[in-house]
Design brief:
The complex is a heterodimer of chains A (507) and B (307). Chain A has 507 residues and is an alpha/beta fold. Chain A has 17 helices and 22 strands. Chain A folds into three domains: 2-237, 3-Layer(aba) Sandwich (Rossmann fold), CATH 3.40.50; 243-333 and 419-507, Rossmann fold (3-Layer(aba) Sandwich); 345-418, no CATH class. Chain A has helices spanning 42-49, 72-77, 95-100, 114-128, 143-156, 173-188, 200-206, 229-237, 296-304, 326-331, 341-345, 352-356, 374-387, 404-416, 434-449, 461-467, 490-497, and strands at 4-13, 16-26, 31-35, 57-62, 65-66, 80-83, 161-165, 192-197, 209-214, 217-223, 255-264, 273-281, 285-289, 311-316, 319-320, 334-337, 367-368, 371-372, 422-426, 453-457, 470-475, 478-484. The longest helix of chain A is centred in the middle third of the chain and has 16 residues, at 173-188. Chain B has a single domain (7-122, 150-286), classed as ABC transporter involved in vitamin B12 uptake, BtuC (Orthogonal Bundle), CATH 1.10.3470. In chain B, 69% of the residues lie in helices and 2% in strands. In chain B, α2 runs antiparallel to α12 (243-262) and α7 packs across α8. The longest helix of chain B has 26 residues, at 7-32. Classes of the chains: A alpha/beta (507), B mainly alpha (307). At the A-B interface, α2 and α3 of A face α8 and α9 of B. Bound molecules: adenosine-5'-diphosphate and magnesium ion. Adenosine-5'-diphosphate is lined by residues 13, 16, 18, 36, 38-44 of chain A.
Amino acid sequence: MAQLEVVGVSKRFGNLRANDNISFSVRGGEVLAVLGENGAGKSTLMKIVSGFLRPDSGRVAVDGQTIPIGDPQAAIRAGIGMIHQHFMLIPRMTVMENLILGREPRTRLGSIDTRQAKQEVEDLSKRFGLHVDPNSPVESLSVGEQQRVEILKAFYRGAKILILDEPTALLTPQETDRLFGSIREFARQGLSVVFISHKLDEVMKISERVMVVRAGQLVDTVDTGQTDAFSLARMMVGRDVDLGASRTTSGLGNVVLTVDHLESQLSKGQPLLGPISFTLRHGEILGVAGVEGNGQQELAELLAGIRLPSSGTILLDDKRVDSLPIRRRLESDIAYVPADRQGEGLVLDLKIWENFILRDYYRPPFRKGLGIDVKVAKARTQAAVDAFDIRPNNIDLPSRALSGGNQQKLLLAREMSRNPRIMIVSQPTRGLDVGAIEYVHHQLMSLAQTGTAIVLISLELDELMKLSDRIMVLFRGQIQGIVARPEFRRDAIGLWMTGQKGQEVRQ
Amino acid sequence: MSFFLNPELWALTVTVSVPLIYASLGGMFSERGGVVNIAMEGMMLMSAFVSVAFAYASHNAWIGLLAGVASGAAMSLLFAWATLKLQADQVVVGMAINLLALGLTGYFLDAFYGYNGTPISTPSLPTWHLNVLSHLPVLGPALAQENVLTYLLIPTLLGAQYALFRTPWGLRLRSMGEKPEAGRSAGLSVLRYRLSGVLLSGILSGIAGAYLSIGVLNSFNVDMTAGRGYIALAAMIFGNWKPKGALMASLIFGFLSAASIQLQGSIIPSDIVLMVPYLLTVVAVAGIVGRTTPPAADGIPYQEESL
Ligand SMILES: Nc1ncnc2c1ncn2[C@@H]1O[C@H](COP(=O)(O)OP(=O)(O)O)[C@@H](O)[C@H]1O
Ligand SMILES: [Mg+2]
């Protein structure tokens, strides 16, 4: 029965107070949730606890014993096991090699004792109900399986206090349920679990107590039984939020986009995308769901023209656009908001107004003679920046100066100002805080209201269920199923995401 | 046909291959830990000179060898300090070290021995005679009468294979070349394991350099390595960062060099044959035949999160 105690931890990065005098404790057998928006300082706090970062002040103790700070080895010895948001696994090595790294059992000759290692791994997976084949290379495992390896790794190193940093971010609903089952089992066996998340429903479901952090500060710690999602959201964001607002679909228009047997050779070693066929109507939001890496990125690139199909057709109205180059595609009123906003969407070192005209600088109204009509460009940008409430409101700043949420607003403002007929949006809210997410959702819904057809690619099932008229699930580059709004069901969509076909939801 | 049956060709192949094998094993250890070491050229050159100098001064080739290896190791520590501690660019530092070695050895050669070059009375490492092997056809003469360093290759190769794939140290070193954060999250020091790989490359380059100057010969001349450090690097890449691969690739490259020497004066221009190793490496790296894959974090400095 280990008890973790964290007292008065502070950490600054330059001028930013990532953690400001935060204290908390966890008992053996307890699940403590740490709730906070992106950037609240959750990961920083846990990296300090696990020795990855050195705090400016504060201390960490296990069972009353203060452990040396900034020393991962010491944290491991004290029984702290951290599952990072980004897995610390080596893809090209086997599960077993990953597990034993740093604590290898040895034979008398000094070589690795593979037999003993295998035995220990088997015992652990049995004890905690976490099954993986020790001989498979990690790169061949699903995300859920990789996470099991990460957890086993912590146990192999003797963890009694398990810290999970946003463990559900990449999981399907079924994998999440399974993880929750495991977490309950760990707690039942007396382990302490710290569960980090920004998702209210998960926190309500799994934890006994919730600690809320906002902008580096501890807001409060409450018993989960004594609170509800609404009050937690208010604590997390600092004001009232509308959790429910869902889309009411008005009548949809004619078909604007027809994708027929579209197929693409993916990068080497990956399965093909397609052949896939679907249609998109005027004013419709088509959600594209799936576990990351199942062809979503390729679909977006095929539609936007960044990637050319190996076969199949894309019809915009009755015009073929599948072999048009990117610029011609954009000129046909197709807009694209890429998932990688900093890499693909914006040029971070260019000014805000320069980014704003990036798609159309070469043609009227931005073209003047051989150059750019700076006055028009700036005026248009200023109007958009005002309308979208982009802060700071200074269009001569480089877009690097904007926060993630404001960068996304700038991207949306640019693409929406082009009055697209089709808009492809990939992961529009990844990494944004609740306020910005609300705003983006609102914008997408009103864009659809004006008749734009939207392909919305997202890993967040909740987001898709909130915004979409239909949801299409991709699995290994194939359409696993398409379902329309009244029939949305998390569990069925989740099954599709893992490649199982549920007949009852087929339509 | 008689060309391939000529025992001299095979004897020459072995002679040319031996330093390549040592150095490519060294490069393999360094890169398996995530450090691209093009400074092996300079480490070899330095060791080639230091070996001669110490062998001559002490009248003992073994002391020459030890000193040469020590100089290779010292250069690798300098390289490690700049690349691991100061996190300078590995290729730039490597280049600088090669130029440093070229300049230093050229200067000292002149300063110590002047116009005549290194003394003829410099001892060289012994050659062993294994008469049992001499009766083998074609290859017999190549294998039965070799420098002691050639025979030392066998335990070195076996040891390299064992250390890299069977021991905890090997697993840890490989983890630092694939994903150093994973090693660090297991409580290991990235710097320490990377340093061990680089140090091994210095030691093995040292042996390779000594072989050139006091193994087959007993003299040193300016730029005596003539790019062998780079060829060894190419052999390691062609051999897919594995001991067996490094061995095979070095032998192929060695054979081609030997063939080009044997072909001098014949209708096939020997320079063309000499080109083949580089061509093969380009082909291998570009993935035209059996793509080779470097360690994922090869050449990327590791920076701990700001503490
Ligand atoms: N190594 C770092 N250097 C500078 N700033 C950082 C660093 N790590 C995190 N931050 C900043 O600290 C804040 C908290 O980040 P983080 O702890 O990752 O938040 P969370 O995990 O709650 O989303 C963010 O504003 C982030 O940009
Ligand atoms: Mg985080």
